[in-house]
Design goal:
With 239 residues, this protein is of the alpha+beta class. Helices cover 44% and strands 14% of the residues. The protein folds into two domains: 108 residues, no CATH class; 115 residues, no CATH class. It is built from seven helices and six strands.
């Protein structure tokens, strides 16, 4: 699910005008406030995206528009899918499962299975202690991603990352769409409140709702920012 900028603008205009009154600001200006809200939620946005690329120990991230790298995954298991090796490292848990519970020699098969699996697990622990598989380091300044491989190198690798939001259509989750709608509406409401309180008439027969809009918008913006702060899963070091 996603919404276009036009849909965000129409949502805001309907809420503030009832589709009857004319707003003091244009659709273009409303769209600018939608963009401003999008920029504000960037630092809190945590919906990750997966992309699969050819494996390399050093991947060039030039032009890769991301906020943070979350994790690295192999696209296939250890079954002979490496580039240079045809050796297959099959997990004994799969390879001997049928033997462990076969009708003939069940006790011996189970014991043999357990010994093989313990040996396999020990080998895995030793390898990860000496060289952690898929450990990575991102060089922000040089736009490089360095990946360690303690086993055979795969043909492809999947990168989980947080994108930098540049378009409202990148936001696809219901939670973040709701946040973006509410923050955009509050920002436009605050702008209207400032416009409608710019001048006042002491002898007017009617008054604008500018003060009400300002009060509502300030409360809504404060509440949304506090919600984003409390729900944030990002860590930002203090200089």
């Amino acid at each position: 699910m996603k919404m276009t900028k036009v849909e965000y603008i129409n949502y805001i205009k309907l809420d503030l005008s009832g589709d009857v009154l004319d707003l003091e600001i244009s659709d273009e200006t409303v769209g600018k406030y939608v963009d401003a809200a999008l920029i504000e939620i960037r630092r809190y946005y945590d919906q990750s995206v997966l992309v699969t690329v050819p494996f390399a120990r050093c991947i060039d991230l030039e032009g890769f528009n991301h906020s943070a790298i979350v994790k690295i995954y192999r696209t296939r298991g250890f079954t002979g899918d490496s580039i240079q090796s045809t050796r297959s490292e099959v997990d004994p848990m799969y390879a001997q499962q049928w033997l462990a519970f076969s009708s003939g020699g069940m006790t011996y098969s189970l014991q043999n299975y357990l010994l093989n699996y313990m040996s396999y697990s020990t080998l895995q622990q030793i390898r990860n202690n000496t060289s952690t598989d898929l450990a990575f380091k991102e060089d922000k300044a040089g736009n490089k991603l360095y990946i360690n491989g303690s086993y055979e190198y795969p043909e492809n690798i999947t990168i989980e990352y947080i994108p930098v939001l540049t378009d409202v259509e990148q936001v696809t989750s219901d939670y973040w769409i709701d946040i973006l709608k509410r923050l955009s509406l509050a920002l436009v409401k605050r702008a209207l409140g400032r416009i409608r309180t710019r001048f006042t008439q002491s002898n007017a027969l009617w008054v604008q709702d500018g003060e009400t809009l300002l009060q509502e918008s300030n409360e809504e913006i404060k509440e949304l920012r506090e919600t984003l702060r409390l729900n944030s899963t990002m860590f930002y070091p203090i200089d």
